[in-house]
Every structure is written in C-alpha cells, then in structure tokens.
Amino acid sequence: MKKIKILHKTPKGKIIGRTDRQPQINAIVFLKTEGRTKLGKIYDVFGPVNKPYVEIIPFNDAVGNKALEVGEAVISDAKKVQKKRYKKRSK
C-alpha cells in the first residue's frame, strides 16, 4: 500500500496529495480510517519522479471534505484489469 498525504482541495473539487512512489492512473484511493472508505480515483500524476503529486477525483463531496480532515489516504495495490470476453457465435 502506498501512502498519500492530502494537501488541499482545488476550486473544481479535486484533491491534491503527495506520495513517495509513482502510482497508476485510475487506481482506487481509500481514506486511512478504520472502515477504509473509498475516496476516489487518481486522475493525474505530476511533479518530480521521486516524490510526485497526485490529483484525485473524489466519488462525492462529503468524502472529499472528510479527506481534508483525516489528512492521509492509501492507494490500493490490487490491479483490477477487466478483460472483455467474447462469446462464440453459433451458426
């Protein structure tokens, strides 16, 4: 699990944080609380390679505001790759 330090919220509602490693785009981010509440998805990664900033799109405003209070989040390591399965057509 990669930790994110929540820094601030942008005027458009996105959350800016900082981490120690390069995360994947669209990775799910959880708040570092007892219940592991889903915060949102990583939208953008920018800044220096060794300590990049991440832009997170929260799933809703209530969770976004709670993230500012908690101050820390965690990126999930699970890689959810959805593969399309095609059915064979019968003649």
Question: Please, could you describe this protein's structure?
Answer:
There is one protein chain. By secondary structure, this protein is mainly beta. Helix content is 11%, strand content 40%. The protein contains one helix and six strands. It has one helix at residues 61-70; strands at 2-9, 15-19, 28-31, 38-46, 53-58, 72-75. A six-stranded antiparallel beta barrel has the order 1-2-5-4-3-6. A hairpin with a 6-residue loop joins β4 and β5. The longest helix is centred in the last third of the chain and has 10 residues, at 61-70. The termini are far apart. The mean pLDDT is 86.
Summarize the amount of helix as a percent range.
Answer: 10-25%
Strands side by side in the biggest sheet = 1-2-5-4-3-6
Could you give the distance between the termini? 49 Å
Low-confidence runs: none
What Rg, in angstroms, do the CA atoms define? 16 Å
Count of DSSP-assigned helices: 1
What's the total number of strands? 6
Order of helices and strands: EEEEEHE
Quickly give the structural class: mainly beta
Largest sheet: 6 strands, antiparallel, barrel
Indicate the overall shape.
globular
- Quote the beta fraction: 35-45%
Instruction: Classify the oligomer.
Output: single chain
Mean of all residue-level pLDDT scores: 86
